[in-house]
Amino acid sequence: MAEIAPSILAADFANLQRDVEMLNASAAGYIHVDIMDGMFVPNISFGIPVCEAVYKHAQKPLDVHLMIEQPDRYLADFKKAGASGITVHYEACPHLHRTVQHIRELGAEPGVALNPHTPVDNLVDILGDVSLVLIMSVNPGFGGQKFIENTYRKVAHLRSLREKFGYTFKIEVDGGVNPGNAPLLIKEGVDILVAGSFVFNAPDPAEAIRLLKSS
């Protein structure tokens, strides 16, 4: 059974505390926090103050996803703001091993994300050092996009590498997740499902989380 990490990018920002408290009471395992800088991705979301505000009310670990250029500048700030795990993009980190080591030294779980066009094999030399690999199943930057079918193959290949080398990292998928694709993603090896629009656009978000959790 996979864990569910609802993305607060799709929450009601005018009632953010209410939505975080709903997640606290739900079957969610994590709260996913999408940070966008308008440079690495064509959108701006929010930054450190909002992360701090969420952490103030959260009872679930904050799964912070940095879709930003030069993320090393802000790793310590996001850890201080409450991040339990910090995921950076392979495409944004020319010195990825150093970045991953820094995240772990700060006391957070390091994760690496891959854009849809980036091959899983690009991570072979870092897989033993990460706690999580995030496969983007949409192009990062906006919620509500259509799920990219090639994601299943990438997840299966990543799982095979994990099994081959005896690694323990978790596999996370983000983008277009719903009850239609969740069971197959879990079958292929996904441990954490990120869901934003499906959860927060539902009449009953807590029930939507429960539905995904039972996939």
TrEMBL record:
Binding site for substrate: S7, H65, G141, F142, G143, G144, D174, G175, G176, G196, S197
Protein's UniProt keywords contain Isomerase: yes
Requisite cofactors: Mn(2+); Fe(2+); Co(2+); Zn(2+)
Source organism per UniProt: Dyadobacter luticola
Catalyses which reaction(s): D-ribulose 5-phosphate = D-xylulose 5-phosphate
PANTHER family: RIBULOSE-5-PHOSPHATE-3-EPIMERASE
GO molecular function, a single term: metal ion binding
Cofactor binding comment, as recorded: Binds 1 divalent metal cation per subunit.
Taxonomic lineage from the root: Bacteria, Pseudomonadati, Bacteroidota, Cytophagia, Cytophagales
Classification via CDD domains: RPE
Pathway the protein acts in: Carbohydrate degradation
Protein name as it appears in the record: Ribulose-phosphate 3-epimerase
Keyword list, A-Z: Carbohydrate metabolism, Cobalt, Isomerase, Manganese, Metal-binding, Zinc
GO biological process terms on file: pentose catabolic process; pentose-phosphate shunt
Family in the record: Belongs to the ribulose-phosphate 3-epimerase family.
EC primary class: isomerase
Residues that coordinate or bind a divalent metal cation: H32, D34, H65, D174
Protein encoded by which gene: rpe
Function of the protein: Catalyzes the reversible epimerization of D-ribulose 5-phosphate to D-xylulose 5-phosphate.
Catalytic site positions: D34 (proton acceptor), D174 (proton donor)
Pfam families: Ribul_P_3_epim
Presence of the UniProt keyword Isomerase in the record: yes
Cross-referenced PROSITE patterns: RIBUL_P_3_EPIMER_1, RIBUL_P_3_EPIMER_2
GO cellular component entries: cytoplasm
EC number per UniProt: 5.1.3.1
